[in-house]
Amino acid sequence: MQTRDRDMKYALYKQEQTQEVITLFKDTFSDSEGKEEGALIAKLVEDFLTLPTKDEDLYVFIAQDESERIVGSIIFSRLSFPNGENIFLLAPVAVATDCHGQGVGQGLIKFGLATLKEKGVTVAITYGDINFYSKTGFATISQDVIQAPLDLSYPEGWIAQSLVGEAVPHVVCKPTCLKAIDNPSYW
């Protein structure tokens, strides 16, 4: 599945793009947060892309410019609940520093959300800047509605959206996350 938007091609990542995606995250986070954070997020992405995971539990999307350079990437991973709710976590997100402010991230997130909706996912949740993510339909939720799999260092950043046109449902149980992101340093 892929689509084009303003000279940008959005698609599911392919395994041969692994190193380019890892480098994008490393460089983007190093530029904005420092080399230590860049290395930490690069390790997270490497783990997502290389640890054994069921195909239906992980979706990695990319944005490519007209020269086919990967300029953005997002990762959605399943949050597993005892009752089988179909909820995915969006994290991390990277857009090449020289492409910030051009709508690449928003376009990529919208493409990813539309793909997840087609696959029957009911809720997308993320942990980040509400000012950015609200542009693609995310809103703050309480952990009374959906708990995070690990303790949050910034609870105000716990945000979600329904992909089925209803309110975000209240989920009683605490989820587990994929092994790659099951580390307190990411939360």
From TrEMBL:
Highest rank taxon of the organism: Bacteria
Signal sequence segment: none
Family annotation (Pfam families): Acetyltransf_7
Domain N-acetyltransferase: 8-161
Keywords in alphabetical order: Transferase
One GO molecular-function entry: acyltransferase activity, transferring groups other than amino-acyl groups
Keyword presence, Signal: no
InterPro entries in UniProt: Acyl_CoA_acyltransferase, GNAT_dom
Keyword S-adenosyl-L-methionine: no
Protein name in UniProt: Predicted acetyltransferase
Annotated organism of origin: Vibrio vulnificus (strain YJ016)
